[in-house]
Amino acid sequence: MTRSCMVFYSALDDFDAWRTALEPEGIELCRSEDITDADRVRSALVWKPPQGFFQDFPKLELVVNLGAGVDALVGRDDLPDVPITRLSDPRMARMMAGFVLFAVTRYARDIPQFEKAQRDRRWHYIHPKDPDSITVGVLGLGELGLEAARECSRHGYRVLGWSRTRKDVEGVSCSSGADALVSVLSRSDIVVCMLPKTPDTDNLLDAAMFRSMKQGAFFINVSRGSVVDEPALIEALASGWLGGATLDVFAKEPLAEDSPLWAMENVLITPHLASIALPSSAARQIGENVRRIARREPVLSRIDPQRGY
Ligand code: NAP
Ligand code: GLV
């Protein structure tokens, strides 16, 4: 019997690191250009593969999205009719929570003001606030959102969490549904967006939503740029309604050279790297799912293409 293999595609991730990590799982990872017998390909590990990528592999049984957000896959029309899974990895969630905590702390501890004062060689004392007096609103309480919300709570912030369906999380005051969003935004000093890109979240945070935030509040987006009406955000930042923003993701990436965001003093831009897929820890879940497919059992972390995440 011929041995099956998994085809790999990512313009960002390290093929050799993934191949090494998947070996102990009994998975042979191949680059598409090295495959001579397409029938051997039974699974795919992909991040934003080019259109038409899957049509060369008629025996595919599983598609593994090389990341948490699956929007680049579910939004396309050339998907094979097989289970699609996302990476679900506590270390990926921890990395994201670390980034969110950094961004929240930067605002909570007035760091942008000290950066400015340092440029002016100015000793600018601001008495630190008790974290308990600062409310952080986390939009999206999924695998990464929940970990970030808990991390903020562990550091003493008051945390409000918002999701599609109601959650019960210790240390996080949870609400759900469209009607509760404005309430979360209006009570938060810092809002963290951790919502996936879906038809329901497209441009969800528009001018009216930014207006409903407290004057001087801060905004952090680490999920997808599409959730935000970018011109409305720029306007809210330029007018001073929002105190500042940390933006890791954008409507169009890379961010255009002529975007006004680059020059805004109250904006910190990072190039979509708040968290990444880590081969050494994520390989086990991939191995488990390949074994489940072989046993004809349901896979873990299967996404729902209709729902979009
Ligand atoms: P997830 O597990 O898919 O959870 C998504 C959360 O959003 C869930 O709580 C869900 O509610 C909520 N949600 C979805 N649609 C909603 C709606 N219309 N209204 C209210 N809540 C809604 O996602 P995750 O693992 O936490 O990751 C979040 C996102 O982070 C990913 O989708 C990806 O885009 C992004 N990401 C970014 C980076 C980066 O480096 N910047 C890295 C990894 C991931 P329910 O719980 O009720 O379903
Ligand atoms: C990265 O953005 C991911 O969704 O994993």
Q: Give average pLDDT, whole number.
A: 97
Number of DSSP strand runs: 12
For the largest sheet, list the strands in their spatial order.
Answer: 8-7-6-9-10-11-12
Strand count, sense and barrel status of the largest sheet are: 7 strands, parallel
Shape: elongated
What percentage of residues falls in helices of 4 or more residues? 25-40%
How many helices? The count is 9
Bound molecules: NADP nicotinamide-adenine-dinucleotide phosphate, glyoxylic acid
Return Rg in Å: 21 Å
- Beta content comes to 15-25%
**Separation of the first and last Cα atoms:** 36 Å
- Extract low-pLDDT stretches: none
Quaternary state of this entry equals single chain
Structural class: alpha/beta
Q: H/E element string? A: EHEEEHEHHEHEEHEHEHEEH
Describe the structure.
The protein has 309 residues and is α/β, with parallel strands linked by helices. It is 30% helix and 17% strand. It contains 9 helices and 12 strands. Strands 8-7-6-9-10-11-12 form a 7-stranded parallel beta sheet, with helices on both faces. Helix 7 (207-212) links the parallel strand 9 (190-193) and strand 10 (217-221). Helix 3 (90-108) crosses helix 5. The radius of gyration is 21 Å and the shape is elongated. It starts with a strand and ends in a 15-residue tail after the last helix. The relative contact order is 0.15. The mean pLDDT is 97. NADP nicotinamide-adenine-dinucleotide phosphate is lined by residues 67-69, 96, 140-145, 163-165, 194-198, 200-201, 222-224, 248-249, 272-275, 309.
